[in-house]
Amino acid sequence: MAKFRIAVHITPRKGLLDPQGKAVTDALHTLGFQSVSNVHVGRYIIVESDSHDAITAEETVTEMCKKLLANPVTEDFEIESAVHA
Amino acid sequence: MAKFRIAVHITPRKGLLDPQGKAVTDALHTLGFQSVSNVHVGRYIIVESDSHDAITAEETVTEMCKKLLANPVTEDFEIESAVHA
Amino acid sequence: MAHVLPRPGDPAITPALVAEHGLTKAEYERLVAMLGRAPTFTELGIISALWSEHCSYKHSRPVLKTLPTEAPYVLQGPGENAGVISIGDGLAIAFKIESHNHPSAVEPYQGAATGVGGILRDVFTMGARPIAMLNSLRFGSLDNSRVRYLFAGVVKGVGDYGNCVGIPTVAGEIVFDKSYEGNPLVNAMCVGLLHEDDLIRAKAEGVGNPIIAVGARTGRDGIHGASFASEDLSEASDAKRPRIQVGDPFTEKLLLEASLELIKSGHIVAIQDMGAAGLTSSSAEMAERGDVGVTIDVTRVPTRESGMSPYEILLSESQERMLVVAKKGHEDAVREILVKWDLTAAVIGQVIAEPVYRVTEGATVVAEFPGSRLVTDCPSYSPEARESDAIKALRNADPFAVAERPEEKDSLWTLEQLLSAPTIASKAWAYRQYDSTVRTNTVIGPGGDAAVLRIRGTNKAIAVKTDCNGRYVYLDPRVGGRIAVAEAARNVACTGARPMAITNCLNFGNPTRPEVFYQFREAVAGMGEACRALGTPVTGGNVSLYNESPGRAVYPTPVIGMVGLIDDLAHITRATFQRDGDAVLLFGEMRGELGGSEYLATIHDQVLGAPPECDLDLEKAVIDALLEAIRAGVVSSAHDCSDGGLGVALAECCVADRENAGGADIDLSGWRGMPNRAVLFGESQARIVVSTSDPARVLEIAKRAGVSCARIGTVRRKSDSLTIKLPDSVLKAPLVRLARAFHDTIPSIMSRTPEHTTFDELTQVAAH
Amino acid sequence: MKFGVVTFPGSNCDYDAFHAITEILGEEAVYLWHKDHDLQGSDVIILPGGFSYGDYLRAGAIARFSPIMQEVIAHARSGAPVIGICNGFQIACEAGLLPGALMRNSHLQFVSAQVIVRVESADTLFTNRYERGDLLRIPVAHGEGRYVASPDVLDGLENEGRVVFRYADAKGNLSSDANPNGSERNIAGIVSEGGNVLGMMPHPERACSPLVGSSDGIRLFESILARVAA
Ligand SMILES: Nc1ncnc2c1ncn2[C@@H]1O[C@H](COP(=O)(O)OP(=O)(O)O)[C@@H](O)[C@H]1O
Ligand SMILES: [Mg+2]
């Protein structure tokens, strides 16, 4: 067994309203960042977990996303490759 | 001018209580993911912005983080290199 | 009539496509007859939404028509976005309840949140400022983790949305029962305050007046939510998952302020929210009410995504959008107000003399219907109604044939079991997440019999409450329908309010099943009887059918939203015992009815027997007598007996307000020959526990009213227990144990579950 | 005295603050629109509760950049009184008028309740009509009210008597049960170095009439009058 760090990116599903992204975009415009065309706000989750190998670690985290970390109805998730912690 | 996508990771300051991280860790344990030792929850922000080049795009987003996207008292931020959108 | 051609790229109309749109063969033929030709894809979409149960009321309209809707003070009955009643001083109350059951079953947080948003818009589009939110929720057993997940998500969705908009959530009810396992009920009610002269109706008028789309941009979300709300929950709804709507309470707040400013400005003639079936139903309903034609150009509708088809734009259920009919020439004034609130406004069409409902894509007509027939000519059904023999048998079963459990020898055990039954236990876990004090009008917040809100600038207050016991309705729909109204009336009366009017949300199963339609017809009949007897007309409501998870219908649940008026702030009365030494009196009759009781359900896991009798004249007499006593200034507290009967009611009078818990000495030994369980836990109606400093006066008032009223004990604030003398034993209940059972149950259940940390419930909650 | 109540697009306690000032205190109050630059000669500025910009991203993060805030910040820097209540507290912290930050409640739920706060220092501009140790019943209603700051900042606040209110139980003890959001050291309210900016999570403007549950908040506003009159 070894300790792995797996990073997960969770983003609002395309096509769904992203009120937070919209609010931040507007705010950035008023702050003078006119060049901004779009902002999406999601979650960044780092899981530290023991596992035999990176593959298994990533599979487990995929499970976690389906079960808890991401909302299957409103969000998409993406898992970065596991690294030794 | 070209369109760039810049990803930003915003994470709670080390040492600060992270109730979300703790709640998720506990939840994962109850769900049977015993191997999890630690979870950190942060924000993942994707900015789409027009810029002359990647460097300038990243500088601008750094500005945004200092001004608005991250709270210097409680959060650290990290910017990924800009990619063409 | 214009010439309408199929739109290039749109699918051809096939029987399969028609079926997908939920239209029967007969309904399709009706459509063809109305058009005198085959519909275009866009037209099929429009009709499938407008003829869905949710928008058309095709199975319920004839039955709803039997409800009483009139009283001198009713300013607006059913047919508008919300009902409106006058409360004097030139002021009026707008209120309405609506369901969001199916969306909440799929995505509890967003489903509940957008439900709150929709009902808010229904109220402020009448020109009223929302002053209170209520809700009525039904879930399966909390032992099921999916149910805990739904419960936590719905509560958070309700809270976050109302909290952000800044409307206090002040009352409601939450019931847990297996019958709702796969199909939770999420009904939200909004109450608003307006000046009578600011009342505005959603009625398109004035040929040439511009039609303006206001608020959020139109996206692809929630397309066909209306027909979605009209199907059984099944894999079908899973497929529609991505179609769920996401709410934005911040935009709603802007929309609320902008709409009220618009209405006051006099620049507009009508305003309506784009709710179910979005632009389609809002524009069609406004045209129909005004008996005018309208034309809309979808290319002028501000969209969130590029390349949206007319079909998508018309049927999108993107939230936080309004449709406004402005006065010709006032477009800029309207735009100015919206810009002030950072909202967009786009002229998308106009009111026309020609009696048609026309949709164009630029210059090309993509849909056209003959005038208001679009709304009025929808199908209407009166399906077969037959009572289920199984339920009849249950009703005829004898509750007293159910043998007592050995533990029941100790009545304290039974009482604690009932106090810790989630349906009876304190719901503070939920309403601590609702801001109930914003706007500082909340005199009695969640936890009382009904919520009480003072009306600024007057010496008046209103009392509001939602109620329904679905188990009664299941066992006897007619009686259950009566009781739902009577209990709601009793609850507001306990705070010192005269019951005025109701809104209602009829949550039933699939109406094409005879036993379901029987329940629907009978329950509405019972409601109507009670409304007539109690003088509380129906000013509006909502129907939600097809509440079934594979195989099984939910308990028929006609939720009543009652509004009462308190003429003098001095009459506001609380539910819990207040003063040491007060006499405890019981209004109403002890009949010891156990049928359909919480006792049978919780202690014996049995749902059987006839629900308690509901004598409407007695209900009226008891309410009137109680109000007379309250107005006489001799009532310290009043609390009605409902779930769990007199035993639970007395315990609540002692410990519901945990910080100020106090005891009482009660003597019920007079009811000889009645088993303890019937005395304590029977749920006979029309009973109210009153504490008073002047029992003689109260007894005399009751006597004159011909209402039985008996002194049953004394308030002992300093005592640490509730003592009840029973016919053949004495129950001595330590307050700490009662309080623990009542207050700690739901928090401990919810804390042992991970579900309430799922991330969709960790979405934005912020400060206030 | 003239109170200016700032209205951000998502403010929803501006109305309550306005009524507390005009109806209960009997003083003059004006609403200040977030897009304006004019404080209309207000002596005291109130940043009210609500969800200024939906509180997306972080509560108060966006509001601090609205035009009126430049004036409010100048007003505060000139030593004039500013009160940040709930969302207003968060905005004041984001704007740097007060140290620290308000993070999501430790139990992760929105909390709406009548809490008890103990008056920690009675010689401030905002508490001189209270006694040290007074227990006030005041409502809270927030999801991000957990006050955090670095240990040395916290020590500084305490040593300089700038912790004005703490969450306490009915006996006045600073138990963790009495702490509705997990704030460090039970802190419910603080003042700025100059003592002229108050930030607090509880809602004194909602505690100005026994009819709605408490009138313990009135003396906070009266304190300002008393001090300025003196
Ligand atoms: N159960 C009911 N009793 C009386 N009126 C009802 C009932 N259900 C719906 N209505 C009325 O029918 C009209 C349309 O209802 P609904 O479709 O829920 O309105 P909305 O368009 O706001 O969703 C409303 O005026 C409503 O008050
Ligand atoms: Mg409506």
Keywords:
heterotetramer, C: 768 residues, alpha+beta, 7-stranded mixed beta sheet, globular, D: 230 residues, alpha/beta, 9-stranded mixed beta sheet, two-stranded antiparallel ribbon, binds adenosine-5'-diphosphate, binds magnesium ion
What is the structure about, briefly put?
The complex is a heterotetramer, with two copies of chain A (85 residues), one copy of chain C (768 residues) and one copy of chain D (230 residues). In chain A, 33% of the residues lie in helices and 40% in strands. Chain A has helices at 19-30, 54-69, and strands at residues 2-12, 36-51, 75-79, 83-84.
Describe what this molecule looks like in 3D.
- The complex is a heterotetramer, with two copies of chain A (about 80 residues), one copy of chain C (about 775 residues) and one copy of chain D (about 230 residues).
- With about 80 residues, chain A is of the alpha+beta class.
- Chain A has helices at about 20-30, 55-70; strands at about 1-10, 35-50, 75-80, 85.
- Chain A has two helices and four strands.
- Chain A is elongated, with a radius of gyration of 16 Å.
- The model of chain A has no long low-confidence stretch (mean pLDDT about 95).
- Chain C is an alpha+beta fold and about 775 residues long.
- Chain C is about 35% helix and about 25% strand.
- Chain C has a seven-stranded mixed beta sheet with strand order 8-10-7-11-9-12-13. A seven-stranded mixed beta sheet of chain C has the order 23-25-22-26-24-27-28, with helices on both faces.
- The relative contact order of chain C is 0.13.
- Chain D is about 25% helix and about 25% strand.
- Chain D has helices at about 15-25, 65-75, 85-95, 150-160, 220-230, and strands at about 1-5, 30-35, 45, 80-85, 100-105, 110-120, 135-140, 145-150, 165-170, 185-190, 195-200.
- Chain D has about 230 residues and is an alpha/beta fold.
- The model of chain D has no long low-confidence stretch (mean pLDDT about 95).
- Chains in contact: A-B, A-C, A-D, B-C, B-D, C-D.
- The interface between B and D is medium-sized, with 10 and 19 residues.
- The structure holds adenosine-5'-diphosphate and magnesium ion.
